[in-house]
C-alpha cells in the first residue's frame, strides 16, 4: 500500500520502522494524529468546521453549550464545594467552553463566581485558538495533563465532547479463533505492509475483562488508551461527575458480526474513507467509543455509574424543545437557520442517536441528574 500525506511525517514514520522494526497500528495512528508539530492535531491547520474536515456539536449552535451549562448548574448545587471545578478535556477550538462560560456568566453569576474552568488540550494549535476566544473569561486556566492534578483533588465535573474517539487504537483481527494485532512495516518498494502479530497480554486481558465476543474474521479496534485514561480521571476526582459525550456503543453492539471491519474511519475535507495510509497527518482518524469499557474501567477507579443515554434524550431533558419552540415562534431568518442547525443535534440521522452521553459520579448521595430524567428505550444499544 502506498503511503501518502505530509512528507516530513512520512519520513519520521519510515525512519522509526527502519530503526525499530514493525510498529503497532496504534503507534502509527498516534504519530499520524499527534506527532509533535507534524501530526493531524498537533499541526496548525483547520480541522473542525466548514473549512476543516468534520463538524462537532460544539460548532453547531450555542444552545448545545447552554444546555450543558444548565446541567452543570444542577451539578454545582449537588457538589456544594468552593471552588467548583469544570475540567474540559480536548476542548478543540473552545466554542463549547465559550458557550458554557457565557451562559454561566450571564444567567448564573453566582455559579460563575465560584467556578474554575480548567482545560486540558493536547493540540498546541487548539490551545492557541482557545486562548484567543476565551480571553474575556478570567476563570479559565490550562493544565497540561490530567496526571498533573493530585489524586482526589477535583471537586466538580470532568467532561469531554468527542475526546475518546480521537485516541489512537490497537487494531486486532481474529483468525482461526486466535486474536492477532495489526502492525505495519515497509516492504522493498517502500510501501506500507500490514502484518499480524500475536496480541499482547494487555489486549487479551481487556478482551477477557470485558467479556468481548469477537466474531471469526473480524478486524476491529481496542482502545486501551481510553481505558487507562478513564482510570486516571477516576483517581483525580474527589467529589462530582464525569460526563462523556461521544459516538459509540456498548461492547455487545460494537462487536456485532455486521461490523466485520470495525468502526475506524478517516475524515478529510468532510469526506470519509477507510484508507488510513493516505493523507497521513492531514486527515483525522477516529473510531467509535466502547462505553461499556469506560463504565467498567471507571468503576475500577472509583467512579459509580449514573446513567447512559443518547444526546437527543439528554438535551431534550434539559430543555432543547423549549428553545426550538421559542425559535419557531420568532419567525425571523436567524431563528429559522438556528432551528435547522439545532435539529441536527436531536434527529436520529443527525447527531441525536449516534452520539451518546455517559454519566459517572463519585461521592454524591443522590446522583440522578436532569439530563437522565427520561431515558431511551432499553435496547442492546443502551445496555452497558
Ligand atoms: C475531535 S476533537 C473535539 C474537539 C471539541 N471537544 C469539540 O467538540 O469540538 C478532539 C480534541 O481532543 C484533543 N485531544 C486528543 N487527545 C487528548 C488528550 N489525551 N488530552 C487532551 N486533549 C486531547 C485533540 O487535540 C482535539 O482538540
Automatic annotation (TrEMBL):
InterPro entries in UniProt: NDUFAF7, NDUFAF7_sf, SAM-dependent_MTases_sf
Gene Ontology molecular functions: protein-arginine omega-N symmetric methyltransferase activity
Biological process terms in GO annotation: methylation
SUPFAM superfamilies per the UniProt record, alphabetical: S-adenosyl-L-methionine-dependent methyltransferases
Alphabetically ordered keywords of this record: Methyltransferase, Transferase
Gene3D superfamilies: 3.40.50.12710
Pfam families to which the protein is assigned, alphabetical: Methyltransf_28
PANTHER family: PROTEIN ARGININE METHYLTRANSFERASE NDUFAF7, MITOCHONDRIAL
Protein name, per record: SAM-dependent methyltransferase, MidA family
Amino acid at each position: 500500500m502506498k503511503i501518502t500525506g505530509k512528507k516530513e511525517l512520512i519520513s519520521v514514520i519510515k525512519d522509526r520502522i527502519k530503526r525499530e522494526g514493525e510498529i503497532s497500528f496504534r503507534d502509527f495512528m498516534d504519530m499520524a494524529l499527534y506527532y509533535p508539530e507534524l501530526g493531524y492535531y498537533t499541526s496548525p491547520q483547520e480541522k473542525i468546521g466548514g473549512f476543516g474536515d468534520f463538524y462537532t456539536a460544539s460548532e453547531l449552535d450555542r444552545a448545545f453549550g447552554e444546555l450543558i451549562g444548565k446541567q452543570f448548574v444542577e451539578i454545582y448545587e449537588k457538589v456544594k464545594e468552593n471552588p467548583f471545578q469544570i475540567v474540559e478535556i480536548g476542548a478543540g477550538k473552545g466554542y463549547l467552553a465559550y458557550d458554557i462560560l457565557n451562559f454561566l456568566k450571564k444567567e448564573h453569576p453566582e455559579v460563575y463566581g465560584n467556578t474554575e474552568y480548567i482545560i486540558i488540550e493536547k493540540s498546541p494549535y487548539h490551545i492557541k485558538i482557545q486562548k484567543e476566544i476565551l480571553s474575556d473569561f478570567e476563570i479559565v486556566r490550562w493544565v497540561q495533563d490530567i496526571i498533573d492534578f493530585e489524586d482526589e483533588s477535583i471537586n466538580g465535573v470532568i467532561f469531554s465532547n468527542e475526546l475518546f474517539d480521537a485516541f489512537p487504537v490497537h487494531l486486532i483481527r481474529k483468525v482461526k479463533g486466535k486474536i492477532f494485532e495489526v502492525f505495519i512495516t515497509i516492504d522493498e518498494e517502500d510501501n506500507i505492509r500490514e502484518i499480524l502479530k500475536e496480541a499482547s497480554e494487555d489486549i487479551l486481558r481487556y478482551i477477557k475483562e470485558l467479556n468481548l465476543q469477537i466474531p471469526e474474521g473480524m478486524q476491529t479496534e481496542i482502545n486501551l488508551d481510553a481505558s487507562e485514561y478513564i482510570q486516571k480521571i477516576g483517581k483525580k476526582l474527589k467529589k462530582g461527575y464525569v460526563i462523556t459525550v461521544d459516538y459509540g456503543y456498548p461492547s455487545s453492539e460494537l462487536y456485532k458480526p455486521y461490523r466485520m471491519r470495525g468502526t475506524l474511519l478517516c475524515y478529510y475535507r468532510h469526506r470519509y474513507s477507510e484508507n488510513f495510509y493516505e493523507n497521513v497527518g492531514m486527515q483525522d482518524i477516529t473510531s467509535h467509543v466502547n462505553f461499556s469499557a469506560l463504565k467498567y474501567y471507571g468503576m475500577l477507579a472509583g467512579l459509580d455509574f449514573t446513567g447512559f443515554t443518547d444526546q437527543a434524550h439528554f438535551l431534550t431533558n434539559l430543555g432543547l424543545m423549549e428553545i426550538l419552540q421559542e425559535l419557531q415562534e420568532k419567525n425571523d431568518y436567524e431563528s429559522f437557520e438556528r432551528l435547522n442547525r439545532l435539529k441536527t443535534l436531536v434527529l436520529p440521522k443527525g447527531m441525536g442517536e449516534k452520539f451518546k452521553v455517559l454519566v459517572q459520579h463519585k461521592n454524591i448521595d443522590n446522583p440522578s441528574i436532569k439530563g437522565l430524567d427520561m431515558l431511551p428505550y432499553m435496547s442492546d444499544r443502551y445496555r452497558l
